[in-house]
Design brief:
The protein is rod-shaped. A hairpin with a 2-residue loop joins strand 9 and strand 10. The chain has 3 domains: 125 residues; 84 residues, Orthogonal Bundle (Helix Hairpins), CATH 1.10.287; 141 residues, Heat Shock Protein 90 (2-Layer Sandwich), CATH 3.30.565. The relative contact order is 0.06. The strands form 3 sheets. The protein has a 5-stranded antiparallel beta sheet with strand order 2-1-5-4-3. It has a 5-stranded mixed beta sheet with strand order 7-9-10-12-11, with helices on one face. The model has no long low-confidence stretch (mean pLDDT 81). It is built from 8 helices and 12 strands. Its EC number is 2.7.13.3. This is histidine kinase. Keywords: Kinase, Membrane, Phosphoprotein, Transferase, Transmembrane, Transmembrane helix, Two-component regulatory system.
Length: 419
């Protein structure tokens, strides 16, 4: 602000100087033309009379006649330039203000050179006053700017100190700490809001990691305990019992490996590390294959599995991954719908639905079930990794498809919509 104001004041100062020079030059040029014209039309005596009677308020004129100087000035300085060139020169006058500064030049007439001058010290005084006022205004601006800048910086530093203090608390593990957001809604409040959003996400992710760790420990504790007990009992087994015990231990070990394989596969799909082998796929054909593979499982659970298709739709996708996602959904429906339930596979255009009339899931859990290692069966009665729906969602997102869960009253409707 100080630089801007200083630049503006300097521009005004230069404008005043230029305006003073312009007015002086125009005034002297007009007087030059007037006296040249008089010299052409008047005789020498009349010309001298006009110079004697010239109004000093208009211009100060002096002419050197053959005998004496004629005009308002008592001297004609040496080395005066010829108009339009001008030069300043001082004169002494009576009164309190004895020294005057004049600006003028010579006019060449047929009666000799005539000095025409005008006072410029008054304009110079005005400019001097302007310069003093400008310097005063500039100094006041600097002082005011520094004072306001100090107060403003103190307010900013106060908030930054508060943010630093809260940040140190977050570094120490107090992840529930949030930066304050004021009513001003300025840039700091916008930054604090964004930072608080990051903290919310971080806290949710940490809670998810803690929950996942607990779930992994819970899911792997039982099979690992069985493995330990089985290995300890192997020396006491007979030859006939040894083969059966090894098969049981192998199955327990496979369950543990399946959990880790599913987690690694989910991570590769979510982060785009697994390359999709894209090809045109018919949803109608895929649902038919799905029905043929899952029908035997439904019969084993004394359930009814049906298929309805209409308006075939072709999608570009990875056949193995898409079939795995759809099969996981049908497998979940068969596993959790209960004995004697009805499961439907419905395909209409770009939409596929898996519908059952089992117990369903609570409305508040429709988003939670897609998190890693989340299982709504706290007793772990059914075998599983808790990664099935997470894997399904990751695969469908890679294929630009949307999955939603809704209540079938009773049961669950899973809807997949391809774009």
């Amino acid at each position: 602000m100080t630089l801007i104001i200083g630049t503006l004041l300097f521009g005004m100062y230069r404008q005043l100087i230029n305006e003073q020079d312009l007015q002086t030059n125009q005034h002297l040029a007009a007087e030059k033309q007037r006296y040249q014209q008089m010299a052409l039309t008047l005789d020498r005596r009349s010309f001298a009379t006009q110079i004697r009677t010239a109004d000093p308020k208009t211009a100060l004129v002096v002419w050197r006649s053959s005998l004496d100087l004629v005009g308002a000035l008592s001297l004609m300085p040496d080395d005066m330039p010829i108009l339009p060139e001008t030069r300043e020169f001082p004169i002494l006058a009576g009164g309190a203000d004895k020294l005057h500064i004049l600006t003028g030049g010579l006019v060449i007439t047929r009666y000799g050179p005539v000095l025409i001058a005008t006072r410029t010290d008054q304009l110079a005084t005005l400019i001097e006053r302007f310069v003093n006022a400008a310097i005063t205004a500039l100094m006041l601006t600097i002082v005011l700017t520094l004072a306001l800048g100090y107060l403003f910086s103190k307010a900013i530093l106060r908030r930054l100190v508060q943010y630093n203090r809260l940040s140190r608390r977050i570094e120490k593990g107090e992840y529930s700490t949030r930066l304050p957001v004021s009513w001003r809604q300025d840039e700091f409040d916008m930054l604090a809001g964004k930072f608080n959003g990051v903290l919310d996400t971080l806290e949710n992710n940490l809670n998810a990691v803690r929950g996942a760790t607990d779930n992994i420990a819970h899911d792997l504790r039982t099979p690992l305990s069985h493995l330990r007990m089985g290995i300890e009992q192997l020396p006491n087994k007979s030859a006939d019992e040894l083969g059966e015990a090894c098969a049981i231990l192998t199955e327990e070990l496979d369950d543990c490996l399946a959990t880790f394989d599913a987690m690694l596969s989910l991570t590769r799909i979510e982060e785009g590390q697994q390359i999709l082998e894209l090809q045109p796929l018919s949803l109608q054909a895929m649902c038919s294959d799905l029905y043929e593979m899952a029908d035997a499982m439904a019969e084993l659970n004394e359930q009814t599995l049906s298929l309805q298709t209409a308006d075939d739709y072709t999608v570009m996708g990875d056949k193995y991954l898409l079939f795995q996602a759809l099969f996981n959904l049908v497998d979940n429906a068969i596993k959790y719908a209960g004995q004697g339930a009805s499961v439907q596979i419905v395909q209409r255009g770009n939409q596929v639905q898996i519908i059952d009339n089992g117990p369903g899931i609570p409305p508040e859990a429709t988003e939670k079930v897609f998190d890693r290692l989340v299982r709504l069966d706290p007793s772990r009665h059914h075998k599983g990794t808790g990664l099935g729906l997470s894997l399904v969602k990751a695969i469908l997102q890679r294929h630009n498809a949307r999955i939603t869960l809704s209540d079938n009253q009773p049961g669950l409707i899973v809807t997949i919509e391809f774009s």
